[in-house]
């Protein structure tokens, strides 16, 4: 009789032995292997997934034949037959990520274990028609693939992260801020035609939450709010190890949470919304008015990233006005975030996005105490505040993770049986 080694395994999603559940079970096995740094044996997979040994063996054989996983040697732990360790094959699958921002368009080619093989940034084309600009993005993707030498047959698809709102069902970006003329642009269809690859489109904040979940370890919290600070501010929600998207794919639009009832008037008609109190461009305007930043030079094109970086540097250098502006923004943001943490009862808040590195010193110093004071669950659990584990400037990696999520992550929706079965 085979001796099963006594190994403590992290809690993972369980599979099902019901018929017709092959796709879900395969995703469970892939996800378990992906989350294990050292790899897992078939015996460990059966134990962690709650599947019959023969089911696991059949799934692993299919994955080995498809070269999505590899056998990575044998290990002995106690009496019995040595374990054959299974790991993801980095060259078994690839994904392309495309992150569209009003200022910068980023591309990434990522392998199955999340290594970025190619990374390209270029200024976003807001002069050409949106259709032509997106078609050029598709041509750039084709060029990146051709120059990489990667087998195109192993590319699972293109993930696109874009400012919202989006029509997720059709892969259309509806009316993103700071991108004039980009009204109901069919990103998915244009890119599918120009690349010849499957395309998935999601909001940038959702892609960032997916990347955080994808890059985290098996021991990471499976319930958190991801606050994305870019040209706009949004929130991604991860509950029970799954990214929540909402009815139309637009969950996390927090721009109209009121942070200061006496604040500036918002375009929604109310006062003090996140959209007019916490946005990076608002902080820059306040800094110029307070003299913490020099007036804008009309002879130079405006650069919000440069202005925010200058504001953060002024605060670091001890400028009292700059420090006060960032401190005030942390307090207002804490009020908005506490609405989410109290509503959802999560124990972790993750901050990220293009402007997070500049705000991180102030926010990480002040936000934990602010949320502790505003949280209704303080007597039950604390609310951790952390920065994203995904490096700044890797937003296209998050877009590629949208493809990986569809391939590797088991979804509860996959358990819905077709009515014809």
SSE inventory with pairings:
Blueprint: H1 22-35, H2 42-49, H3 53-65, E1 69-75, E2 83-88, E3 94-100, E4 104-111, E5 116-123, H4 130-148, E6 155-162, E7 166-167, E8 172-173, H5 187-195, E9 199-203, H6 204-215, E10 224-229, E11 233-239, E12 242-244, H7 274-277, H8 280-290, H9 304-316, H10 320-344, E13 348-352, H11 356-374, E14 384-387, H12 395-408
Parallel strand pairs: 3-6, 6-9, 10-13, 13-14
Antiparallel strand pairs: 1-2, 3-4, 4-5, 7-8, 10-11, 11-12
Helix pairs in contact: 1-3, 2-3, 4-5, 6-12, 8-9, 8-10, 9-10, 10-11
Task: Give a concise summary.
The protein is an alpha/beta fold and 421 residues long. The chain has helices spanning 22-35, 42-49, 53-65, 130-148, 187-195, 204-215, 274-277, 280-290, 304-316, 320-344, 356-374, 395-408; strands at 69-75, 83-88, 94-100, 104-111, 116-123, 155-162, 166-167, 172-173, 199-203, 224-229, 233-239, 242-244, 348-352, 384-387. 38% of the residues lie in helices and 19% in strands.
């Amino acid at each position: 009789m085979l001796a099963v080694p006594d190994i403590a395994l992290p809690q993972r999603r369980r599979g099902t032995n019901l018929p017709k559940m092959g796709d879900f079970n395969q995703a469970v096995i892939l996800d378990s292997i992906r989350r294990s740094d050292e790899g897992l044996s078939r015996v460990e997979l059966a134990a962690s997934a709650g599947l019959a040994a023969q089911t696991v063996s059949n799934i692993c054989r299919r994955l080995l034949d498809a070269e999505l996983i590899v056998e990575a040697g044998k290990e002995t732990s106690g009496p019995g037959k040595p374990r054959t360790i299974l790991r993801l094959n980095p060259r078994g699958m690839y994904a392309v990520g495309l992150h569209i921002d009003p200022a910068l368009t980023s591309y990434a080619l990522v392998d199955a274990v999340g290594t970025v093989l190619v990374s390209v940034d270029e200024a976003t084309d807001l002069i050409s028609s949106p259709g032509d600009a997106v078609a050029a993005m598709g041509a750039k993707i084709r060029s990146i693939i051709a120059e990489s030498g990667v087998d195109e047959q192993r590319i699972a698809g293109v993930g696109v992260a874009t400012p919202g709102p989006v029509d997720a069902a059709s892969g259309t970006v509806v009316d993103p801020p700071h991108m004039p003329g980009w009204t109901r642009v069919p990103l998915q269809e244009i890119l599918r035609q120009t690349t010849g690859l499957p395309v998935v489109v999601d909001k940038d904040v959702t892609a960032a939450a997916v990347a955080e979940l994808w890059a985290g370890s098996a021991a990471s919290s499976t319930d958190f709010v991801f606050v994305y600070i870019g040209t706009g501010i949004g929130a991604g929600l991860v509950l029970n190890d799954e990214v929540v998207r909402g009815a139309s794919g637009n969950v996390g639009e927090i721009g109209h949470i009121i942070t200061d009832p006496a604040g500036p008037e918002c375009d929604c008609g109310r006062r003090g919304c996140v959209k007019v109190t916490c946005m990076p461009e608002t902080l820059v305007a306040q800094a110029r008015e307070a003299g913490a930043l020099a007036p804008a030079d009309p002879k130079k094109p405006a650069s919000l990233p440069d202005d925010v970086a200058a504001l953060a540097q002024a605060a670091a250098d001890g400028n009292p006005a700059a420090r006060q502006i960032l401190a005030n923004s942390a307090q207002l943001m804490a009020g908005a975030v506490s609405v989410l943490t109290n509503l959802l009862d999560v124990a972790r808040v993750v901050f990220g996005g293009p402007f997070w590195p500049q705000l991180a010193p102030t926010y990480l110093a002040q936000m934990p105490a602010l949320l502790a004071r505003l949280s209704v669950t303080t007597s039950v659990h604390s609310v951790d505040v952390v920065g994203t584990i995904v490096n700044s400037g890797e937003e296209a990696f998050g877009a590629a993770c949208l493809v990986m999520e569809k391939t590797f992550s088991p979804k509860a929706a996959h358990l819905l049986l077709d009515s014809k079965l």
